[in-house]
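Can you give me the bound-state structure? Components:
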Amino acid sequence: MQKIINDPVYGFITVNDPLIFDIIAHPFFQRLRRIHQMALAYLVYPGAVHTRLHHALGAYHLMGSAISELKSKGIIITEEEEVAAKAAILLHDVGHGPFSHALEGRLVKGAHHEQLSLLMMQAMNDDFDGRLTMAIDIFTNKYPKKFLHQLISGQIDVDRMDYLTRDSFFTGVSEGVIGYHRILKMLTVHDGELMVEEKGIFSIEKFLVARRQMYWQVYLHKTVLSAEIMLVNLLKRAFLLAADGDKNLATGGAMDFFLYQFDGTIYREMLLQFSRLDDTDCSFAIKKWSQHPDFVLSQLSNRLLNRQLLKIRLQSEPFDEAMVKEKLAEASQILNVTEDAKYFVFTGEADNTMYNMGDDKINILFKNGVVKDIASIDNPLIHQTISAPIKKFYICTLT
Amino acid sequence: MQKIINDPVYGFITVNDPLIFDIIAHPFFQRLRRIHQMALAYLVYPGAVHTRLHHALGAYHLMGSAISELKSKGIIITEEEEVAAKAAILLHDVGHGPFSHALEGRLVKGAHHEQLSLLMMQAMNDDFDGRLTMAIDIFTNKYPKKFLHQLISGQIDVDRMDYLTRDSFFTGVSEGVIGYHRILKMLTVHDGELMVEEKGIFSIEKFLVARRQMYWQVYLHKTVLSAEIMLVNLLKRAFLLAADGDKNLATGGAMDFFLYQFDGTIYREMLLQFSRLDDTDCSFAIKKWSQHPDFVLSQLSNRLLNRQLLKIRLQSEPFDEAMVKEKLAEASQILNVTEDAKYFVFTGEADNTMYNMGDDKINILFKNGVVKDIASIDNPLIHQTISAPIKKFYICTLT
Amino acid sequence: MQKIINDPVYGFITVNDPLIFDIIAHPFFQRLRRIHQMALAYLVYPGAVHTRLHHALGAYHLMGSAISELKSKGIIITEEEEVAAKAAILLHDVGHGPFSHALEGRLVKGAHHEQLSLLMMQAMNDDFDGRLTMAIDIFTNKYPKKFLHQLISGQIDVDRMDYLTRDSFFTGVSEGVIGYHRILKMLTVHDGELMVEEKGIFSIEKFLVARRQMYWQVYLHKTVLSAEIMLVNLLKRAFLLAADGDKNLATGGAMDFFLYQFDGTIYREMLLQFSRLDDTDCSFAIKKWSQHPDFVLSQLSNRLLNRQLLKIRLQSEPFDEAMVKEKLAEASQILNVTEDAKYFVFTGEADNTMYNMGDDKINILFKNGVVKDIASIDNPLIHQTISAPIKKFYICTLT
Amino acid sequence: MQKIINDPVYGFITVNDPLIFDIIAHPFFQRLRRIHQMALAYLVYPGAVHTRLHHALGAYHLMGSAISELKSKGIIITEEEEVAAKAAILLHDVGHGPFSHALEGRLVKGAHHEQLSLLMMQAMNDDFDGRLTMAIDIFTNKYPKKFLHQLISGQIDVDRMDYLTRDSFFTGVSEGVIGYHRILKMLTVHDGELMVEEKGIFSIEKFLVARRQMYWQVYLHKTVLSAEIMLVNLLKRAFLLAADGDKNLATGGAMDFFLYQFDGTIYREMLLQFSRLDDTDCSFAIKKWSQHPDFVLSQLSNRLLNRQLLKIRLQSEPFDEAMVKEKLAEASQILNVTEDAKYFVFTGEADNTMYNMGDDKINILFKNGVVKDIASIDNPLIHQTISAPIKKFYICTLT
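Here's the bound-state model for the whole set.
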């Protein structure tokens, strides 16, 4: 049996293995339909409403292309390994919660999505009578052929290739377009490690520049940043009220467990609750809370719903404290609050390490067999710049 | 002031009029962010998660292009008329409820979205001190320059041009691509009516064929049809239970009013409730109802959530009644229900008139000044075929 | 060894077989770089300057995709057959002369390009020690697996799929875009014949409509038609003068043989001359002849060079003879010629059979095993229209 | 009157001014149809066969967009200035000879294309009764509104924007894609100078990186370099033979004047000869010379015709002299020549200043009114890297 899925990015995605069909049909995977890939970025880029499920399918497609490219170069990859690697990439983000990165560790307090992904894969492995065991080994880098893990989670993995390509497509930001087609053709394996052939250097350079541009222009776009920080603050407030015993916050849905009961311990029953949680619950809560008596909670909720976001400014130096105080005073007066003004006026730091951007050691395999990290190559564009972390200070204000 | 919005379909959309800014910032318009343009089509086409708001912005963009094209041909359109036409197209779908067409008249019983759009525009006009009056006149075809209304709602309007282009883009179905760029360049006005220049005939032909293909391949795709009928049945069941006094259906959100209180009368307070209603409420209800004690309701809810859809077949003739009975009996046994099996096995008809596809009288203006309906032109492709309604019979079954 | 070629249409084209490398490196194949794929269409569509070589590479790429798709469905195709089919498609047009279709049989009098393609393949087969034998068998439909020939030359072959896609890409005419990606995925083999799966019907419909639109909008665009007929007339005049002993026509290049010596007999020495002939020779001759003393020859040459084309009109009925006479008289006076006015005023017929468009018997394989010609399927768009030949009358005039 | 031209890159190009129609219809402009935009790059990138005429039309289109953008920001540009700027950009490259940059100053010895462009514009201005006077003033930067000249020839002009976009499109090298749409929207004029608004910084960064990548990956691709140097050497040889009195080189076309008569002086009669010269003449000569008795000439000609290019290597340091000598000796022996081996084995330097890449002073206008050169902005990617010239050494060898 074979099924093809229309994908506006790659044309068609082909599914033809029973295990892959089973994964896609599993409620854990279908839940990813209800999680936005780019959190609140759609408030700036109206097209950016694509889902985690779509990204997972896209990365799966690229994995297929990468593997078939490597096989055509004589790298030995068995049928079973191929399916396992595809299964692993399909599930690599299955542990993401509502609004993905924006709420990482905030709603499911203290939990990182990779930890949850692994737990969910293990639970699915029970359902599937162990058919995911090799996929889990690859995902956790316990499988001997390291390059399979590197295709899932490395400096030049299919995860990044898909999200850059896909996010660029749905936002319409041409600056993020990478030559994924060409990069895939340049992949190779040497001493068991994933590498890029010499003539792929320009494509890698383009990839790194595109990634950098997407961070500053899209992922850390100041308006997106403002919205996502407001969302974090809104949840903080809700947790505070919940801790104080406010029962009016309850939504009747999967959020309630995390608001009132979850203590940070990861266990099976918790996983069941988590698997019921998605963007819908969070959005519904915001709509409900927009009519909650707590001023801060309803204000933030209404503002997010109707896109009345806090003003935000970014700069290279910290903001002047006197100015911050003044803005706070102003907000206090306007809103007629005292201490709670801090939910509407605050400062912080954003940097490109937020998406693990720091480490760019990509190995290049030269024709003569020499291997060099791309950062050490005589190429002024890459070696001095991309690797440098960049930090920006922001201030959000009411006026 | 000028703002540009990234759109993956057209590149950039420019906003530079105060009225347009005010419309976009209004909560009625922002609500369209939370309504899928293509209802449940994303269950087949994972990219089809774009929103009504995005479509409204796209149609607004095409309206700007159309008007500037017409002006370059000497058609007189004042600044005020231009803004009014843009305002009208931005708001033409503002009255859509959750899941748009799929639930038209089902959730907000008996109400059609165009009626609601008008009511909402009138309410906004109050907020805007009458600045929407001309837009409303154009929308309701009371404005003397008829071609402005025809650009919004006619056989070759910017609404259709945008949704075909946009839906084709997000589904990845290349069959729906139309040459909107060229069609816009071929528009003209003659005797106050919108027409297409002679050399645009091929582009119109392409447009009509693309539309037809999108209906059968996408909008009425059998799996999409199955999902949308399941959603309608699910709501029917909920209304039935609500009418019987079941209070467990209440979600605590905007749905409750329509489940328990709304009597079909349209009035101001009702409009307020309606303006709070979007896909989130409906999706949240489905998630909640997936654990409801009523078997039919929870079954349908779970199946929609996890994409376990009813099987569906389409054919040109009605289905054999004996076969239907047999399928019903089978379902009764499997589900251990009697009469309620009809929620899982049923027949119906689908046709392309569902989207007002019937009427294709597009006027062509020939170089010599003659005007002809495209259907009467010596062009075998168009005249015999496109206009014909096509009806198909479907059956949905459990097995 | 593996080489990838950048193609703006498909991304990358991979070459990895020694025979394919040898074919591409052969002077016969390299000559195709110097033949425009679309003759003089670039006078209307400035981007349409792509070459026969590019089309051959593109069709080769689609052949690879088609074969790999068929193999994934269990159709047995050996490594040797795969390379042979690819070799055959690379060379299917190798016998095209200058300006391809536009001068078919006019310059190399009486010879059809398919006949010349075969001769050239046979000559190359000698160079290649018989390694092209199977490719030639497939090309001439002598090979038992008929579907391989049908992929090269049939109703839904990779030749057509590439030229529609490529010509549409380079002209920028979106009406010609076909879903080649999807069509390829729908191909199958049944009883040894190439067929399309049931769910590919819409894509085939789109393919047929796109082809029809490309004929009328591009290939037979009236201005293109005018230019190509002028080119034919220009050559006619040159042949006439040459037959009268005019030695001034000689260019010093490969044209001279065909102007003065070629008697229509196809033989080895002639093939050598032919293999030296390409668009360059023809364009150079036109430039040279633009200063020739013969009025008709220099007029037509200058007009083609500087895009001062004859006016042209198309209609469904023959043109009125009186009007033609009047136009002829007018031209005689303006140009101060008598009989030769016929080179500047003339009528003729164009129809879509010019590109073998008539026969559209594409077999559809239904899920239940039934095979039907697409024209017999209950689909009003296809069955009444596409197959009908359309004839148009044209008149070219000076004024 | 208005005419639209299909362009695969921008969709449609609109022409609606009598002067623009006259320019396009002029033989000087039509001649650009017969000059490849990218010289011999098509030997590596088969799609790169687009013409100078197409580039001129594309740059004209961008000029229209840029001007309309600036006007919408309140910059005053009269109707006459707009047409003049468009005329100037249409003609900015009209003085290019065969194979453009590759033969700059080689065939028309010592002449630079900008000098010839000006002469040709002046000659056309005579034909047009002075209607090109303002266009010439803008082209030569004598017109007071400097920004109009900067749009034609500056660091961020529409010439570069078009050629990067177009060359990237036709080669299929996605690394060269720039966000021209966005850059145009970010253009502004401050103190009479063309500038880029602050929020356009990322797009400019992308533009500079794309340009750099196109130089190394496409324009100076080693195989393209090899072919273009071979072409230069071939011409050198022909000039040497011609100087020695060899009359067999004569082609009967426009080349002959430059081979035998042209002494480097620019005058009217010479301009007429030049206006008859295009790629056709050069290609025809190569075909003819492939059978010339001189070994070097016929070898190089045949090799170019059949794409049997010299091997080439690039590195950061000069090549070892002993190795060069050895390669020379080897070639002497193989070809059975002595001194002439230097046509087949030689070294040289390539750098990115070849296309005036050095100077990147693009002014950014900040919201607070401050103007800064982009190189001085706190942006590590740009300031350390792009501006640095890069030099590479190459060696071409027979084996």
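A couple of observations. The two ends of chain D are 59 Å apart (CA to CA). Chain D has a mean pLDDT of 91.
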